[in-house]
Input
Amino acid sequence: MVHILQLITALRQALPLSTQDVSETMDARVRFPFLPEKDVLRTLLIHRPEDVPTFDFIWDLLFGDLQSLSSPVTPAHRDKRNSSPGGLGFGRGTGGVSLDPGASAALQSSLTAQALALLEALNPLENQEEALKQLLGALGLYAWLNSQALSCQRGEISSAAWDTAQEEFLALQFALSQVIQAWQIKRANSWDHLVQQHWRYRPLLNLSPAEKRLVQAAIRQWGRTLAVHPGSRFRPGSRGTLDISASLRQAARRDGFIFQPARKTRITKVPELVVLCDVSNSVAPYVEFLLYLVLKLRSHFRRIRLFLFIDTLFEIQNLPFDPDLSEVDTIIETWAHKGSSGFSDYGRVLREFADTVLPGVSARSTLLILGDGKNNYRPPQTEYLALIQEKVRRVIWLNPLEMNEWYDRDNALSQYREHCTHVFRCRTLHDLQIITRKLMR
Amino acid sequence: MWNSPAELSQALSQQGYLLGSEAAITLFLALALEKPCLLEGPAGVGKTQLALSLAEVSGRHLIRLQCYEGLDTTKALYDWDYAKQLLRLQLAKGSGWNEVKTDLFSSEFLLARPLLQALLSPDPALLLIDELDKSDEEFESFLLELLAEFQVTIPELGTLKAKTKPLVILTSNNSRDFSDALRRRCVQLQLTYPSLEQETAILRQKCPEIADRLNQDVAEFVAKVRKLPLRKLPSVSESLDFARALHALREDSLDLERLVGTLGILLKYPQDLIKLEERLRRWQAENQKNQGR
Output
C-alpha cells in the first residue's frame, strides 16, 4: 500500500484528490485483488479524461525506470503506433531506425536513449518546449517528417501513409515531451514541473491540438456563464415559479376561486459586447482563443461587434467564421498585409474607435480589449480610452503578457489601466477561469 | 450481480453490446462499489445504448431523465399537483385551516418525476440521466445529494431515501465540463470510437444480413474517415446506417467510385462532406495508380 500512497502524493501535486477517493481506492484494492492494480487506481482516482495522461506519466515515472518512459503514451497513442508510415528510417544520415511495427519497441528504446544523452548536454531545467524542439531536430524527426511530406507530394507514398506518418510524429513528440518532463522532475527533485506542464497552467501559446480542444471545451462553458446573467425582471409564462401575487389577483377577479395558478420566469439580461482584438504578431497565438470565446458568446449576446487592429481598425461584419476559425485566419492575414504597417499603435486605434464607432455603441455595452499594450513608443492618447470608458458600461482588458512585462518601456498598459474597469492577465486556461469567476461576481 | 469484469462483458455481449476490457473494469467497479457511472464521449459511440443494455441484463426497469437547458426540479424530481390542490381547497370550505394545510402537502398531491420515481421504486431500477451536459449548472448542483446519498430533500416532506439503491448512469457529450464535486461522486468512463476489429464485430452482430466483405470494407473506410479533420466524425450508428445503405444499393463490397449519394449518411455537415469528397478523389487517384502498376 505504500506505493499507492506514493502515487497519491505525486498525483495531488497536479490533481485534486479527496480522502474519500483514497479510502475507496484502498477498499477496492482489498475487495478486488484480481483486477489490474493500475486500472483500479486510474478508475477510482481520476475523474477527468484529460487527467489520464498525467496519471499514466506519474505511474510510469514511479514504477518504471527512466528507460521505460519510452512508452508513456495513452492507449489511443498506443493504438496509432501499431502501423508503419512507409518504412523510412529515423535519425540523421542513412542509419535511421526502421518504423516497421515489429521494430517499434526498439525504436522507442533507441530514441529514448539518444534523447537522454542529448538532455544531459542541453540541461533544459526551465523551458520544456524549446528543449523538445531541439530534441526533435537533433534526432532528425523534423527532417523525417519533411521527407514524408515531400514523398506524399511526389506521389511516392499514399495520403493514408502520410496521415499515419503525422500520427507517428505526434506520438513520438508526446513520448519525448514526457521523457523531458521526467528528466526535469528527477533533476530538480521536485514535482513543480508537473504542475507547470498541466494543460490548465501552460501558456495557451504552447498547447497541443488535443489540449486546444480541451481549452475550447472549457471556454465554451465559460462563454455561456459570462453571457447569461439572470435579470431582475420577470415575464409571465406557462412554466417557471409560481407567481403568487398574479394568482391572487386572478382569484380576486373570480370571487376568490383560483382556476389556474399563474407562473413567471426570470428574463435574462442580453447585453451588447464590443471586442477590440490586437492581431499583431506578438499577440496572434492568443487571439485564437479570444475569438473562440467570442464565437461562443455570439448566441448569448444581443449584439457582438468584433474589431481587429494593429495600427488601424477593421470590423469583421456578421462574424462569418466557422468553428475551426480557418475563415477568420484568412481574413486576418489578408487584412494585415493590406491595411496595416505590422506595428501596434493603440493610441491611434482608440482615437479611431472613439471618433467612428463609439457614437453607435450602447451605454450598456461591454468593451473587451485583447492586447499586450505594446505601443512601439507611439503616443498612447489615453484621453480617448477615458472617453470610451465614460460611454460604455465597463472596459475589460485581457493581456497575455506576464504582469512584470506590463511595465516595460514600450508598453502603454500602465497608462491605460486607470481607464479600465478590469485588467486581467490572460495567458493560460487557469487565467481565463479566474477572469470568468471575477466577472461573474 | 457479476463477479468479474469478464462476466459483465459477456452478459452485455449476449445483449448485443460489445464492451472493451478496460471499460468493463471501470463499469464493473462502478457497479460493485454502488457508485454512479458517468459515461462521456462523442455522440453516437453507444453511451445511451450501454445504459439500455445494462438495464436489460441486470433485470432492472429503466427510468430515464432526458436533460435539456432549463430543466429544473419540478420536471426532474417532483412537483405539486396544483390543480388537485385547488380542487381540494374548493371542497374544504367548511373545514379548518390546520386540517387543510397539512393535507395539501401530502404524498397524494405529489407528482413524482423520474428522479423521485427511481428513489421510491420498490423494484430495482436503473436511472439513466441522459445528456447531463445539456442541463444548467444549478441542476448539476442539485443532483449532488442524490448521487452521493441516494436521497433527496423535499422541504414539505423531509428527506426521502432510496428504498432500493438504483443503478445510476449519467451520459454526457462533453458540450460542457462538470464540477469537481459531481465528478468525485461518479466513476468516469470515457467511451471512444471503436477500433477496426471492434467496429467490424459490431457491424457483423448488428447487420448479419450484410456480406462480411462489405462489413469489413465499411469498417476500414469509416476508420480512414475518422482520421480526417472533420467537425463531426462518423459514429457507430452512422457506420451501421452506411453499411445498410450500401447493402440496400445491392453492393457486396465498398467501391470508392460508387459512393456518390451515400456519404451524406456518414457525415452530417456540408463542410465535412466537401472535405471527404476532396479526399475521396485523392484516394481514387491513388487506387488507380496502384492498379496501373
The domain at 5-77+113-190 of chain B is CATH 3.40.50.300 (Rossmann fold).
